[in-house]
Q: What sequence folds into this?
């Protein structure tokens, strides 16, 4: 078991004929992901790495029975690509595009949520259930080295940090059940608390590790779910960006989503809120294994 | 991108919204000519910030001479951190009643905030009379329909003929807000004159930088100021120029008051490493935000800025695993910068933590630069930060002793 996808999930790739789409598809297939169809309008009938290409998602789904889609489409077209996937009945979408125009993101997310479709992203490098399947560029050609199988679920606001977190787990003798780069754009599909509920229900996950940043109300939602008793497995959280609180507001640092808007969505406020809800707060990567030792003992 | 008042008003006018007549003046005589035509006017400093009234940046005058005098006073002043180069001269609107309206993004959808009290800051109204303020999420799938808007204004306590007018205006403005890819519009006040006509007297607007590709007409229309009106130095301006002219993703460089120069990749890694620098007792000389680029030019532009900053006493090049650029491209830029600036890494510490494609070649390149510490595989972000903080502190105390 793992969350959202497993080795049997049938996966479609939108924008499979572009350079990033081809590149990632090759490594995903090598990793064992069951990629069954690709979509690029005007390239129907071709194939990429042996995967047949269709002109529309509808045709790709009809031919392959795909239920998940990974989308490689530039910002200008990402809204339509998500709406097309929703329309074709896709259940899990990974949207890698970053810096999506805010109104487009709002429309796409409203559509996925109305349809009950799970949307990972925007601005994600994908997700991986080590040893089973991966979607997107996560792990590149070194996924085996960076993501060791194990029983800790990881959910990261930053794509790059998902590798660092998993490496920190491996260094401390832990491994990953599923690692999701949930999206770093200001508007994303699903919340931390929703990932936490998935991991809570996953029999192969013993504990959860979250990485967060200033801005957004994601951690507030997670803390609420913990306080309400929906999350009972141990939670370790690393929230970066405390330094921003000693700089004037409005300086642009890191992800756009990391802009401090109010006192409450600062990194230290999030740490405090999560600690009060029972989470173990790590300040450095190296502290994570020790916190897990304590939490799981 | 924040737009200044004259640009917001011009945009509103183009979209058939009711706006008082007015235009920008760069000197007192221009202001006087405009006032001659309009009669009683408000002369306002053009700066991309709110709270101008409070800052003394709005003068209400009756004659062209007074308008010239107001322009003379305001131009050259600094308002909320922004230097005033121009004023906006606008016909006074005969205000009978004032309302407040804004759209701004919440977590998932635009939030609508309205109030039956305009002309004062919305936080103040909310503090004094919370029932007069109504907040709601717009549904991105249906927009804000006129009847949705009417019901919001009704909840805010508005009644009579103005209700329909406000409802229609609010719905139309929401469409314009979405079509312009704005992420914020604040109309304060929306005024009503004695005949029941509406006028958008105060208006601020911010455009989504990520949507400029479909609004070419906005390009270059930004206020041209850094956040909070901070004056950028030559190195920061050089990086902005490099960002605009060289191929590749967005590049940002902001100087801080410490001595450790950093080029970090991955937004998360940048945040976390910055925190750890502080934890380990160091201070950063700069912050960077780096996206993929096809050649060494963009990373080299940032490295040049870092090494030209006289406060920089050490350099950390540290990226997430497999991030953004092949290691050899990044390290090639580093080597080029070290050569150009004749850096001796035995006295000026340089720490490198970049892993992934091109790593073997990158490791071979730094062999030519004795003293550069290229961390071994599996070294963590913690390791990289600890090392640069310790080495820089040592270098600084050695320099102090010499």
A:
């Amino acid at each position: 078991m793992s969350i959202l996808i497993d080795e049997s999930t049938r996966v479609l790739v939108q924008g499979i004929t572009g350079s990033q789409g081809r590149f990632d598809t090759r490594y995903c297939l090598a990793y064992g992901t069951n990629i069954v169809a690709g979509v690029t309008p005007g390239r129907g009938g071709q194939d990429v790495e042996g995967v047949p290409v269709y002109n529309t998602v509808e045709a790709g789904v009809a031919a392959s029975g795909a239920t998940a889609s990974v989308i490689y489409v530039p910002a200008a077209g990402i809204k339509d690509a998500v709406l097309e996937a929703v329309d074709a009945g896709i259940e899990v979408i990974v949207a890698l595009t970053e810096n999506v125009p805010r109104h487009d993101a709002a429309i796409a997310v409203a559509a996925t949520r109305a349809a009950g479709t799970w949307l990972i992203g925007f601005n994600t490098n994908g997700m991986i259930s080590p040893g089973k399947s991966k979607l997107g560029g996560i792990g590149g050609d070194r996924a085996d080295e960076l993501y060791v199988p194990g029983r800790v679920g990881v959910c990261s606001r930053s794509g790059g940090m998902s590798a660092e977190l998993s490496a920190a787990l491996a260094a401390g003798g832990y491994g990953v059940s599923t690692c999701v780069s949930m999206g770093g754009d200001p508007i994303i599909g699903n919340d931390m608390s929703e990932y936490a509920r998935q991991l809570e229900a996953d029999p192969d996950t013993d504990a959860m590790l979250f990485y967060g940043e200033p801005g957004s109300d994601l951690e507030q939602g997670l803390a609420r779910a913990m306080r309400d008793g929906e999350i009972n497995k141990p939670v370790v959280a690393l929230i970066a960006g405390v330094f921003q609180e000693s700089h004037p507001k409005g300086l642009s640092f890191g992800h756009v989503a990391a802009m401090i808007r109010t006192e409450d969505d600062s990194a230290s406020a999030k740490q405090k809120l999560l600690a009060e809800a029972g989470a173990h707060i790590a300040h450095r990567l190296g502290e994570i294994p020790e916190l897990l030792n304590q939490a799981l003992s | 991108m924040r737009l200044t008042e004259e640009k917001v008003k011009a945009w509103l006018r183009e979209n058939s919204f009711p706006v008082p007549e007015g235009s920008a003046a760069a000197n007192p005589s221009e202001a006087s000519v405009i006032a001659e035509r309009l009669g009683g006017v408000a002369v306002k400093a053009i700066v991309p910030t709110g709270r101008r009234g409070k800052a003394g940046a709005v003068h209400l005058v009756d004659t062209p001479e007074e308008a010239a005098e107001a322009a003379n006073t305001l131009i050259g002043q600094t308002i909320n951190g922004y230097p005033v180069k121009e004023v906006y001269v606008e016909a006074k609107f005969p205000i009978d009643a004032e309302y407040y309206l804004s759209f701004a993004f919440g977590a998932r959808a635009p939030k609508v905030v309205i109030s039956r009290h305009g002309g004062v800051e919305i936080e103040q109204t909310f503090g004094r009379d919370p029932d007069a303020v109504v907040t709601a999420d717009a549904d991105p799938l249906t927009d804000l329909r006129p009847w949705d808007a009417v019901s919001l204004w009704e909840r805010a306590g508005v009644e009579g003929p103005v209700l329909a007018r406000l409802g229609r205006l609010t719905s139309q403005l929401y469409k314009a807000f979405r079509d312009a890819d704005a992420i914020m519009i604040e109309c304060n006040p929306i005024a009503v004159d004695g005949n029941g006509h509406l006028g958008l007297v105060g208006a601020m607007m911010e455009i989504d930088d990520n949507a400029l590709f479909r609004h070419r007409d906005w390009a270059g229309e930004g206020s041209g100021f850094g956040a909070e009106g901070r004056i950028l130095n030559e190195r920061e301006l050089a990086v902005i120029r490099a960002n605009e002219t060289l191929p590749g993703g967005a590049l940002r460089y902001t100087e801080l008051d410490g001595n450790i120069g950093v080029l970090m990749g991955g937004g998360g890694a940048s945040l976390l490493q910055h925190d750890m620098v502080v934890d380990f007792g160091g201070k950063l000389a700069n912050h960077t935000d780096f996206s993929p680029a096809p050649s060494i030019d963009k990373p080299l532009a940032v490295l040049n800025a870092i090494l030209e900053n006289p406060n920089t006493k050490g350099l950390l090049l540290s990226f997430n695993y497999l991030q953004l650029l092949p290691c050899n491209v990044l390290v090639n830029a580093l080597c080029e910068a070290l050569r150009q600036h004749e850096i001796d890494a035995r006295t000026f510490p340089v720490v490198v933590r970049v892993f992934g494609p091109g790593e073997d070649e990158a490791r071979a390149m730094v062999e030519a630069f004795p003293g550069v510490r290229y961390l071994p595989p599996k070294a963590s972000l913690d390791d990289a930060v600890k090392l640069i903080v310790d080495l820089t502190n040592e270098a600084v105390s050695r320099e102090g002793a010499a």
